[in-house]
Amino acid sequence: MKNDLTDNPPENCNTILIVEDNQLLSDAIEMMIKLLPVKDSLPTIHIQKAMDYENAVVKILEIPNHGDLNTVILDINLGKQKKRERKSGRELGVLIRKHAPKTKIIVFTSHSDELEINSILKNINPEGFLIKDGRTDHNLFQEVILKVINGETYYCDTVLNVMSNIKIRNK
């Protein structure tokens, strides 16, 4: 698999945007993507990164000028914002669905409470959903990226349990 870190992706590649405010974690995610197992069926991957809401919005709104944005790995807590009104990855996910509805979203968040998970599922409907809880290792993370790139959906056990609890209450 080839990786390209320039701002302009080559044609026929899979562009992944990492939206994570923690530099170390952002770099680790990038490295995990670079280390994805090489397969002939896996296209060239172009990686972009945004450390905050504002930079992510710029990249999302530039999609029509720079080709497709195939996948976004999205943190929900995006730290301090430059403007007074704090925006989160939740609002960013809604923006992605509006401006790039074909883009696949993998939510990677520390939020594990039922209310927050339900809100993310309802408002963003991500193709992948992982909790930063110590159970997600690099092998699982890479597996989820590959599944989502290939059109599958993956939700971790915590999210599946919340979905099950909601279904039971709605009966």
Automatic annotation (TrEMBL):
Source organism superkingdom: Bacteria
Domain Response regulatory: start-end pairs: 15-147
Give residue numbers for the modification (4-aspartylphosphate): 75
Alphabetical UniProt keywords: Phosphoprotein
User: Is Phosphoprotein one of the keywords?
Assistant: yes
Q: Which InterPro entries match?
A: CheY-like_superfamily (IPR011006), Sig_transdc_resp-reg_receiver (IPR001789)
Keyword presence, Repeat: no
Protein name stated in the entry: Response regulator transcription factor
